[in-house]
Design brief:
globular, 2,3-Dihydroxybiphenyl 1,2-Dioxygenase, domain 1, 5 helices, alpha+beta, 20 strands, 306 residues, eight-stranded mixed β-sheet, ten-stranded mixed β-sheet
Length: 306
C-alpha cells in the first residue's frame, strides 16, 4: 500500500470537443492542451490538468490520483505486478494503471512537470458583523466565469460498497471521514480522504456510493471563494446551462455548493469553504439525512446522482 496525496483528474468521453470546451470555459476551467482526439483542462493551481475529454461516445471514463513520488509508483506497481508507464499527458511523468472492481480505470501518477499557477482575479476583502477590514473602498465582484482552482473530489456509484471501499483503502491508503448508513449497521457509502498524517486535507477525495450498479455520480471542483462561485453561476445561467442543485451548504464536509450538468449530462460541482481534517479527526457514522440535507439552501432534487 501507498498513500496517495490527492485526486488528480477525471476523464470523460464526448462526441464534440468544441462544445465540451465551450462549457468548461464557462464553468471556469482553462485549456491546458488540445489534441485531435483529446482536450485537457486545468484550474489556477500549479497542476497540469484536472479534466480530460476524449473524443467518442459520451460517458465517464475514469479518474486519477497523485502519488507522493515515483518511488511510490514503483512500490505500488511491484505489489500488484503492473508496469510503470511513461505518461504522454500534459506534464508528463509516470503512471500505474488499475481497473477498480466496478470496471473504472484508475491511474496513479507522479513525477509530473508542474506548470506555473495562474493568476486569481477575485481577491476580495469582506466585512462582517465582527470585523470590518475593508474601509474606504467599495467591494466590486468582477463579472465572468468562476475561477476553478483544482479538482477536489469524485463520487462514483458502485456495485458493492464494502468491496470498493476495501479496494481503494488497500491500494491507496484512503481513510474514512464519514460512513453513511441507511439504517443502523447498514452502510451504503463513505466519504474517504487522503491520509497525510498531521497535514490537513479535504474532508473527502472519493465517495463510493453502493447503488448496486457502477456509474458516475459527480465531480467537484474548488473555486476561489463564495463571490467567485456566485459570479460564475450567473455566467452558466445566462448561457442556458442546465442547473442541478444549489446554492447551499452541505452538512458533511460543510462546503458551499452549486451543481450543474455538462452538455452530455455529467454532473459537475462548484464548491468552496470545505472542512479540512487530519489524523486527529476520527471516523464518524452519519445518516442518509446528513448526506442529503443542507445547513441552508434548497433540498436535493431526485435527479441527483442519476
Amino acid at each position: 500500500m501507498i498513500k496517495v496525496t490527492d485526486i488528480a483528474y477525471v476523464r470523460f468521453r464526448a462526441p464534440d470537443l468544441d462544445e465540451m470546451e465551450k462549457f468548461l470555459l464557462e464553468f471556469g476551467l482553462v485549456r491546458a492542451e488540445r489534441r485531435d482526439k483529446a482536450l485537457f483542462m486545468r484550474g489556477t493551481d500549479a497542476l497540469p490538468f484536472a479534466h480530460v475529454t476524449e473524443l467518442g461516445e459520451p460517458g465517464f471514463v475514469g479518474l486519477g490520483f497523485y502519488a507522493e513520488s515515483t518511488a511510490d509508483l514503483e512500490k505500488l506497481a511491484g505489489a500488484h505486478n503492473l508496469p510503470v508507464e511513461e505518461s504522454d499527458a500534459p506534464g508528463g511523468g509516470r503512471l500505474v494503471r488499475f481497473t477498480d472492481p466496478n470496471g473504472f480505470p484508475v491511474d496513479v501518477v507522479a513525477g509530473q512537470q508542474l506548470p506555473p499557477a495562474l493568476p486569481v482575479g477575485r481577491h476580495l476583502v469582506h466585512n462582517d458583523g465582527e470585523a470590518q477590514p475593508r474601509k474606504g473602498e467599495p467591494l466590486r465582484v468582477a463579472a465572468g466565469p468562476s475561477q476553478v482552482k483544482r479538482l477536489g473530489h469524485c463520487v462514483i456509484n458502485v456495485k458493492d460498497f464494502r468491496e470498493t471501499e476495501a479496494w481503494y483503502k488497500e491500494r491507496f491508503g484512503l481513510i474514512t471521514s464519514d460512513e453513511i448508513e441507511i439504517a443502523p449497521g447498514a452502510p451504503i457509502g463513505a466519504f474517504m480522504r487522503c491520509d497525510r498524517g498531521r497535514t490537513h486535507v479535504d474532508h473527502h477525495t472519493l465517495f463510493p456510493v453502493g447503488t448496486g450498479a457502477a456509474g458516475f455520480n459527480h465531480a467537484a471542483f474548488e473555486v476561489a471563494n463564495f463571490d467567485d462561485l456566485m459570479a460564475g453561476r450567473e455566467v452558466l445561467a445566462q448561457s442556458g446551462r442546465r442547473h442541478e442543485w444549489g446554492v447551499g451548504r452541505h452538512k458533511l464536509g460543510s462546503q458551499i455548493f452549486d451543481y450543474w450538468r455538462d452538455p452530455w449530462g455529467h454532473t459537475v460541482e462548484h464548491w468552496t469553504d470545505g472542512d479540512l481534517f487530519n489524523n486527529e479527526t476520527p471516523p464518524n457514522i452519519a445518516t442518509l439525512d446528513d448526506l442529503t440535507g443542507n445547513q441552508w439552501g434548497p433540498p436535493a432534487p431526485p435527479s441527483m446522482g442519476a
